[in-house]
Each structure stands twice: as structure tokens, then as C-alpha cells.
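Bug #77: duplicate submission created two jobs. Keeping one. Sequence:
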Amino acid sequence: MKKRSLLLIFCAVILLIYYSPITAAFEKKFLGSARYIGLGCAYVGMSDDETAVFINPAGLVNIRLAGVALTGGSMYAGLDMGSLVRGNICSAVNFDRLRASSPDSANIGILGLGIDYFSAGTSEGDSYNETVFVFSYARKLLEGIGGGINLKIPRWSSEVGGDSSYEIQNLVVSMDVGVLIVESKNLSIGGAIYDILEPDIYAKFEDESGFIPFSGRFGLSYTTKEKFMTINMDIIYQEDVIDLAAGLEVKLKGFLTGAVFKSLTLRSGLYLYEVTEGFDYSFGVGYLSKIKNHNLRIDYAFKYPIMNGIGGTLGTHFLTTSFGFGRPGKVTMKDFQIKEKVPDAKESEEPLKDLDDLPEKQPEEFDDMPEKQLEEFDDLPEKQDEQPEEEIKNLEEIKDLDDIDKELETNKSNN
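Kept job's structure:
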């Protein structure tokens, strides 16, 4: 029990005493990507990439085809007492997109996988580590509504004075649920509840217990009509405490011209502890590179505590590299639907009335058209640039033929 007490003291010093905003074991505030951190941790209503595995599993409905992301970060860098490091990797596959060529296929859904790692270490060599394995599933529930669920396996270990005997060996399971409601192409609403089962991470010790408390989030995400600016707001509840988060994402191509600005995105956010107990300020930048229909994105975020009792730190730094298969875009009502097979033109005399009657593969190409117009037309084949010249040549030939006919008629009349 003496060593056990040392462990508790160590964890308390690293995670609780050092700064006033209480951070418990398996803390979720830093559980995400650099984009999430840059937005001030306001993300549950947006959740439009594979990192939704950690924040809102229902957001996986936004995955175009498949994606993978790798994140690493240093929390409150420069602490004299030690270091706090966090990293994660996640991936997701949209099986409905993979089977899009088969209109009669069922709504299988999206599968995701994530691993999150946290480590706290002191200058004396003591350490505390957490690992969470996440298995996610998401699919359409109703028109414009997606739902998701996470099954998680949290594990921890510690090393105090060279003794690493404290490690959970038995299986502990937890669960998250999430929902995403798409009101329009501009507005989405999201919510998630974490650790519903409130697992006992000290279940190995008969005389002690330590439950991971359930927590929840509710948030909104609004994108302007031109698709160049997104505003997020979240309300976070954990252990009878309510925090607020707000974030702004701006795509520079909507305001500045040039090849450099075309791929850059700026982010900024605030995280308010108990609304009035200090806050964190976040700043982030992202770079998106298109590789045919795939996308490589690199995001960086900086987070700094203000008026919340934390001192002597160089801030929190996160870096994420992600690769997505298929073009990016915010989910729309059509993305939730399994398109019905459209009759061949030869089999039906009725003309196509609107975009909803086009074959299944085409609607996703028209999603977020205002956002992509500058990019889509850059990718058109070079042959299209040659068409005007060919049309001009054809017109000139027709004009020459008309002149010849007129000349023949004139000769006939003279004769």
C-alpha cells in the first residue's frame, strides 16, 4: 500500500495539483487532433474527419472513402516537474462509399479504429501512462441524422522508484455514444456522451476503486454560404463542472489570392474553464495538398493557458498528419442516403429533372461546389482548353463553304 500511495501522490502532483483546472485520469480535453486543439476543442458539432473517432463517433459519416491520421503533442511544455506527452493514431473506412457502385447494397456504415496514448514523467524517472483502444461504428439513423458508438478499452501503468508492478491486467471496457444532425449544408448539431459505463480502472485492487466519470458535449457548427469560414461552439460537462469552447476556422483562399493561400487554413479558439475560472487560447494553421482525388493535410496547433493558475510553461503544441482518400467536404443530407438505381435512358422516356435523378456517383461530386470551384476547374483536362480553338476552326471552315456556295450562285447568274 505504501507504493500505491506513492503512485496516487505522483498522479495527483502531475495531473491535479500543478494547475487549478482539474484534470482527471483519462482526460478528454486534449483527446483529438491539432485541428481540434486549434479550434479551442470546439469540435463535436463539426466532426468531419477520421479524428471523430475520439470526439464524436457519429461524425464518421463525413468520411468520403477512408482516412488515417497521426497526432503527437507536448502538453504544457517546459514544466520543471516533468513532461506531459500525448499522441494518437486513428483511421476510418466508409463501406457505403466503397459499395457505391452497387445501388442495391445495404447501409453498412462506417468503421473506425483509434489508439490514444498519454504519458506523464518526472525528472526523477517516475512515470504514469495511459492507453485507450477505441473501436467505432457509425451509420445513418434517419433522414439527415447519423449516430455512432465507441467501445473502448482503457489501460494504465505506472513506474515509481523503478517499480512497474502497478498495471491493470484485467479487461476494463467503456462506451461512448454520439449523434450528428445535419440541418443544412451550413449548419450541423452534434452531441456525445463519454464513458457511459463508468469503468473502474482500479478493479484489480479489491480495497480501492477509481471510476472514470461519464461526461458529455453538445455543440453547433455553422459554415458561411461561401464555405470559407466555420464557427464552432461546444458546451462540455464533466464531474458537475461546465466548460465552454469556441473556435473559428478560416480558409484563406476565400480572402486572398495566390497559390500559397489556396491551401492554407487558419484557426483560433478559446476554452473557458467553468466559464469564469480562466481560459486557454488556441491558434492553429493547416495545409491541404491535393493528390488527384486524395488529400494530404498537415495541421499544427498552439494552446496557451491564461489566468488559470498555470505558470512556467511554453504552452501546448500539437502536430497532425492525415491522409484522406476521396475529396473532402462537409456532410449533406444526400450523403446519408442510399441512392435508388436510376433507369437507363433507353429504358425510360422521362428526362432527368434535377440533380437528385443523376446516377449515384454524381451527387458527391457536386457537394460543396461553392467551396471547390476554384480548385475543381484547375483539374479539368487540358483538352478542354483546346476546344474553343477547334470550334473556331470549324466555324471558319463553315464560313469558307458558305463563301464558295455564294460564288457559285453568282457565276450561274452571270452565265
